[in-house]
């Protein structure tokens, strides 16, 4: 896991002459460092110095770095799912102020009344505990079928446009939406890994494979949530092309890279989401 992130840092900053081979990136920490020294000409001391530079450049805590080195998904997910609540709240408050046409003094009054009790649930409608569990299930399942994945920092978005996507909704005590999107290449890799056969083009078979995978993940999640008295009904997965999602509250968009191919994982909790064709046509 660490090699996936550190290799990208080394290549992006011109520290090494070219990209680190994918099979090397996917090694556990100690074998990865050994292979890096053997294949790049960097000394062990230089590698350690660049690790410190990488930690500082990405503002990683010692706990974050340990999570990446461990490769333990349960440790990595909280590190990935870390948003600055103050920044997100302020950004969404300004949007709320504009839409509601309230004055600065009225906005300040709202802040004084109940900053964490009202504003956070209103605008950050994701339960970190449940979201963390869902992301753990999702990533572990992808790892099981595809091997290593480069997981990039997620962002919170209110709109998301895509070329191809398979998504599924879960409705009930809480409402969830989860989908995998991309240009097709990365989705085909996942479809092939899941089905155990080569999938070269995005077609009905590839979409069915992704649908089954997402349905499996959501089934495991719904089963676990029922143990907490959160009961969910799972919709049939749907395949979409050239559409845009718009949401009344932030959706999580997590970029993933699998063997050089990029896809996005999109996830939301208790958001009202509309789907429209690109260009605004229904």
Structure description:
The protein is of the alpha+beta class and 282 residues long. The protein has 3 domains: 2-71; 85-123, no CATH class; 128-277, 3-Layer(aba) Sandwich (Chemotaxis protein chec), CATH 3.40.1550.10. It has 11 helices and 7 strands. The chain has helices at 2-12, 22-25, 29-40, 44-57, 62-70, 73-80, 85-100, 104-123, 128-146, 185-195, 204-226, and strands at 150-151, 155-172, 176-182, 232-234, 238-258, 261-269, 273-277. Strands 1, 2, 3, 4, 5, 6 and 7 form a 7-stranded antiparallel β-sheet that branches. Helix 10 (185-195) packs across helix 11 (204-226). The longest helix has 23 residues, at 204-226. The chain is globular.
Gyration radius (Cα, Å) is 21 Å
Percent of residues in helices? 40-55%
DSSP strand content: 15-25%
Instruction: Please tell me what the overall shape is.
Output: globular
Number of β-strand runs: 7
- Classified in CATH, the superfamily of the largest domain is CheC-like
- Text of the CATH class of the largest domain: Alpha Beta
Low-confidence stretches: 114-126
Distance between the termini: 41 Å
CATH architectural grouping of the largest domain: 3-Layer(aba) Sandwich
Count of DSSP-assigned helices: 11
- Mean pLDDT value: 79
- SSE string, helices as H and strands as E: HHHHHHHHHEEEHHEEEE
Describe the largest sheet: 7 strands, antiparallel
Domain module tally: 3
Classify the secondary structure makeup into a structural class. Answer: alpha+beta
CATH topology of the largest domain: the name is Chemotaxis protein chec
């Amino acid at each position: 896991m660490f090699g996936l992130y550190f290799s990208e840092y080394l290549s992006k900053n011109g520290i090494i002459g070219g990209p680190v081979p994918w099979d090397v990136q996917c090694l556990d920490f100690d074998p990865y460092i050994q292979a890096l020294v053997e294949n790049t000409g960097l000394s062990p001391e230089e590698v350690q110095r660049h690790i410190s530079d990488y930690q500082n450049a990405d503002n990683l805590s010692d706990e974050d770095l340990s999570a990446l080195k461990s490769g333990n998904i349960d440790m990595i997910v909280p590190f990935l799912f870390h948003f600055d609540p103050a920044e997100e709240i302020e950004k969404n408050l300004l949007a709320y102020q504009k839409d509601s046409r309230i004055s600065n003094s009225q906005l300040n009054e709202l802040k004084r009344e109940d900053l964490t009790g009202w504003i956070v649930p209103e605008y950050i409608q994701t339960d970190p505990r449940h979201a963390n569990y869902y992301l753990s299930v999702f990533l572990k399942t992808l790892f099981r079928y595809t091997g290593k994945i480069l997981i990039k920092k997620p962002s919170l978005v209110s709109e998301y446009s895509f070329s191809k996507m398979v998504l599924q909704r879960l409705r009930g005590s809480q409402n969830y939406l989860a989908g995998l999107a991309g240009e097709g290449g990365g989705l085909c890799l996942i479809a092939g890994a899941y089905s155990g056969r080569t999938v070269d083009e995005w077609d009905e078979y590839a979409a069915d494979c992704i649908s089954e995978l997402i349905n499996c993940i959501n089934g495991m999640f719904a089963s676990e949530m029922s143990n907490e008295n959160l009961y969910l009904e799972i919709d049939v997965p749907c395949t979409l092309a050239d559409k845009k999602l718009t949401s009344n509250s932030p959706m999580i968009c997590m970029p993933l890279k699998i063997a050089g191919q990029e896809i996005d994982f999109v996830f939301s909790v208790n958001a009202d989401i509309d789907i429209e064709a690109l260009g605004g046509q229904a």
